[in-house]
Write a structure and sequence with these properties.
It is a single chain. The protein has about 325 residues and is of the alpha/beta class. The protein is globular, with a radius of gyration of 21 Å. The strands form two sheets. The chain has a seven-stranded parallel beta sheet with strand order 8-7-6-9-10-11-12, with helices on both faces. Strands 2-1-3-4-5 form a five-stranded parallel beta sheet. It has twelve helices and twelve strands. The protein folds into two domains: about 120 residues, NAD(P)-binding Rossmann-like Domain (Rossmann fold); about 190 residues, NAD(P)-binding Rossmann-like Domain (Rossmann fold, 3-Layer(aba) Sandwich), CATH 3.40.50.720. The longest helix is centred in the last third of the chain and has 20 residues. About 35% of the residues lie in helices and about 15% in strands. The structure holds nicotinamide-adenine-dinucleotide. The site of nicotinamide-adenine-dinucleotide has 29 residues, from helix 4 and helix 6.
Length: about 325
């Protein structure tokens, strides 16, 4: 079967081509993002493979299903960018890669914490510019600091586990607690209120759902400790960015590390260094010395890319063979 692979980069081609071809299928790599404007590129394919900033709306699914689309393969864990109701209605099957390497994202989240805490982003630039002053670079010991993990799935638990290695006090919240997992890693559940009000560092690891959209907003920010550090490696839409900027301006939030941004769709994964940045909210965020932004790269390790490629190929092959794939998303 031929499969159109959208938003493909060199690193996708490198890992996906051999994995899909080994199953006897033929990938066609397209650099374009898939959205309502580019639907025609997917016409005629029974299978398409998409990434986090491709978007498959109800309109897109209806239109492509009429042109033969049967399978959507997400090479991501999150699936907020696919209208699952429409997929169900039009008989389009959707699969994802639920766990390609939770280590990649957890390690990255901790990397952001350490970078912000010890001001490594500033130190790097200072030394290159011949400035060896240590003024303004003071951090804090991670030991005994309270770290609040929101969402204790695969990535959240591992992030907490790594932080326990620093002897931090790790608390967590999840509406579906994994009590044994948390206990094994030395973390304990508290209410969301307690987590928000008592944590020195808060790291987000829950999915973007209608119920979690803007869960970090002016009200929840207002309840946090003064100078709190906020880390988001999950999905940008969890944070109301305008409210966050206000909280940064008045010092409520001390430091922010974000690998994801709520309006990243038109920007991320592309080199736009020759273009004018049109997103004024994002531009304002970039002006804060205590905000570190990365372009959705937390997943980007060799191990993760290998697993994504292999699981995507397995999902496709299982669909074709009529077997339920491991990564199937059921409504
Ligand atoms: P997971 O499904 O294993 O865990 C998500 C957890 O969030 C679950 O335990 C769930 O019960 C919990 N949850 C649901 N609603 C919640 C709420 N309202 N409050 C608190 N917790 C809630 O997912 P995972 O593999 O750990 O991934 C977590 C998120 O990380 C994904 O949803 C994805 O958006 C993001 N992610 C980002 C990258 C990246 O490169 N930046 C890569 C992979 C995943």
């Amino acid at each position: 079967m031929e499969i159109a692979v959208f938003s493909s980069k060199k690193y996708d081609t490198k890992y996906l081509r051999p994995a899909i071809e080994a199953k006897g299928h033929q990938p066609h790599f397209l650099q374009s993002r898939l959205d309502d404007e580019t639907l025609q590129l997917a016409e005629g394919y029974a299978a398409i493979c998409i990434f986090v900033n491709d978007s498959l709306t109800a309109r897109g699914i209806e239109s492509l299903s009429k042109k033969g689309l049967k399978y959507v393969l997400l090479r991501s864990a999150g699936y907020n960018n696919v209208d699952l109701d429409a997929a169900d209605k039009f008989g389009v099957k959707v699969a994802r890669v639920p766990a390609y390497s939770p280590y990649s994202v957890a390690e990255f989240a901790v990397g952001l914490i350490l970078m912000l805490n010890r001001n490594l982003h500033k130190a790097y630039n200072r030394v290159r510019a011949g400035n060896f002053s240590l003024e303004g670079l003071t951090g804090f010991d991670m030991r005994n600091r309270r770290i609040g993990i929101i969402g204790t799935g695969k990535i959240g638990l591992l992030t907490g586990k790594i932080c326990r290695g620093f002897d931090s006090d790790v608390v967590c919240y999840d509406p579906y607690p994994n009590v044994d997992g948390a206990k094994e890693y030395g973390m304990r559940y508290v209410s969301l209120d307690e987590l928000l009000e008592t944590s020195d560092i808060i790291s987000l690891h829950c999915p973007l759902l209608p119920s979690t959209h803007h869960m970090i907003n002016s009200e929840t920010l207002g309840r946090m400790k003064d100078g709190v550090m906020l880390i988001n490696t999950s999905r940008g839409g969890l944070i109301d960015t305008v409210a966050l900027i206000k909280a940064l301006k008045n010092g409520k939030v001390g430091q922010v590390g974000m690998d994801v941004y709520e309006h990243e769709g038109n920007m991320y994964f592309e080199d736009s260094s020759d273009s004018i940045l049109l997103d004024d909210v994002f531009s304002r965020l970039l002006t804060f010395h205590n905000v570190c932004i990365t372009g959705h790269q937390a997943f980007l390790t060799r191990e993760a890319l290998e697993n994504i490629a292999q699981e995507t190929a397995n999902n496709l092959d299982d669909f074709i063979k009529g077997v339920e794939p491991k990564g199937i998303i059921k409504k």
